[in-house]
Amino acid sequence: MVQASEVRKSPRFRVTLQVQITGVDEAAVLRSGDISSTGLFLEIDHDVGRIGSMQRLEIRADDGSCSVILLARVVRIASVEDFWKGRTVAGVALQFMFVEEPGLDILRNTARPANESATLRGLLKYLVKKDAAKHGIEVQSWRGTVRTQQGEQAAELHEVSPRGMAIETDYPVEIGQVIRVEMPALADASRSSFAGQVTSCEPMRAKLGRSERYRVVVRFEAADGTGESEPAGESIDAAFEALLHAVTSLAPPPDFASRVRHLAGELSRISLISVITLCQIERVTGSLLLKNGTSSIRAFLQNGELIDALVAGRDVDPRAAMKEVIGWSDGTFEVEFEQVVRPNRIGLPTSALLFDLAREMDEASRKG
Asked: What average pLDDT does range 224-243 have in this prediction?
């Protein structure tokens, strides 16, 4: 789901969620997958869209509470033939673009929604806490360090609950030993530290190309203030809350241009206002190709601002071109990242232009 360089920054959690993909699902569908602060991998048995296409998602916890709406981009598609069930089981990896699909209310302010982190982090925290309280939740691709009597060594977190955690190491740890596990807190680059007692250390089946590994279970215990790092808290609950905060913190997103090479989609699923607002927020430079039947319009962006627009086969001013396309509820869009060297013929901030066009369309519909 995430690039190799993001593995340590974005721990993934194995979860079951209600997910509705606009244009694909008529209602939310209960699906299994992995979720992190950067994206979602879903098990799904039908086509969602090609790689690079944008999708609108509504994600809810499996009990229907705590929901969030996001724009996401398809970054990977996997499929395998299931001969037992007689069908193709597929998976799709989706990279979050930003939380809450923008609408007319965001046009007055081009800054990211203030509740972005709180909304996504709130969903992650709810999922982790809910599952961990019952039986512990599986965590993938998140590495930290363990301070033992033998010194500091690497470890990988695999499961967490209010009672403790399970880590994977390539070295045995003595049962009964009190150790300190440190995991990175993503948002501020600090580390959270947890004192605990080793209750079991079992060898795991060696994987191809890897040395023998051990599954070490650590039980949280009251911190005694010893060790090189300050303890996370003075109770089991405090330790778990600190770990919960660390695993659900949102890492700063990588540069948009470095993580997105292709962006396209259908206007029946993602509104044009959402597409333009995303380009504005991410300061995209390039062109936006819009097609609907035989109509084709190309808009040009410079650092996220619309500067020009052309209608294929007709000579119209850029404002008229954008007014024509802003009302499309069908068709396709494709963003081409490229240098743009042309005069600004629109002469208005994009937010002001879109707001004016939306107001004019609203007035026209009332008269009609």
From this structure: 51
Give CA–CA dist 43/30, Å, rounded.
10
Q: Give SS3 for 302.
A: strand
Residue 342 — very low, low, confident or very high, per pLDDT cuts 50/70/90? Answer: very high
Q: Would strands 67-82 and 87-99 be described as parallel, antiparallel, or unpaired?
A: antiparallel
Q: DSSP state, 278?
A: H
pTM attached to this predicted model: 0.69
Under a CB-based contact definition with an 8 Å cutoff, are residues 58 and 42 in contact? no
User: How far apart are alpha carbons 10 and 157 in whole angstroms?
Assistant: 12
> Residue 298 forms beta bridges with which residues?
289, 310
φ, ψ (nearest 5 deg) of residue 100: 70, 105
Tokens of 346: 């629109």
**Cα separation of 291 and 186, whole Å?**
41
> Minimal CA–CA distance to 273: which of 355, 190, 204?
355
